[in-house]
Write a structure and sequence with these properties.
By secondary structure, the protein is an alpha+beta fold. The protein has a domain of about 80 residues: Nucleotidyltransferase, domain 5 (2-Layer Sandwich). The chain has 3 helices and 4 strands. The chain has a 4-stranded mixed sheet. A hairpin with a 3-residue loop joins strand 1 and strand 2. The protein is elongated, with a radius of gyration of 18 Å.
Length: about 120
């Protein structure tokens, strides 16, 4: 019963593998961690980090329940509306108790361009 978490930052990609049955122990279930440089092709760095924590922990990948990936690259690209780092592939809507009260936050020009 293991989970892997990956955080892709502007400089480093960090990963950890957790034994969810051991979260109440002193280690809080952390079996292995990895810090590697964030790569130009973000997926390569994520793959390296995940492979590293699996190797260090000795856990069989079939025992991993899920992998959660967080990235400031994506958030920054959306917040800055940086067209060099974005492709039109989907509509993103953050969910939560506020979803009906908060209007979309995409720039007006993009919203109007997609009406056709």
């Amino acid at each position: 019963m293991y989970r892997i978490g990956v955080d892709v930052g502007g400089t480093n990609t960090d990963a950890a593998i957790l034994d969810i049955r051991a979260i109440q122990t002193e280690s809080r279930g952390v079996l292995a961690t990895c810090k590697t440089s964030t790569t130009a092709h973000v997926t390569d760095g994520i793959k390296t980090a995940i492979e590293s924590v699996l190797l260090k922990s000795g856990i069989d990948r079939s025992q991993v329940l899920n992998v959660a990936i967080g990235t400031t690259h994506f958030v920054n690209a959306v917040a800055e509306y940086d067209e060099r780092r974005l492709s039109r592939v989907a509509v993103i809507r953050l969910c939560g108790p506020y979803t009906r009260k908060v209007p979309h936050f995409w720039p007006h020009s993009a919203h109007v361009a997609n009406r056709n």
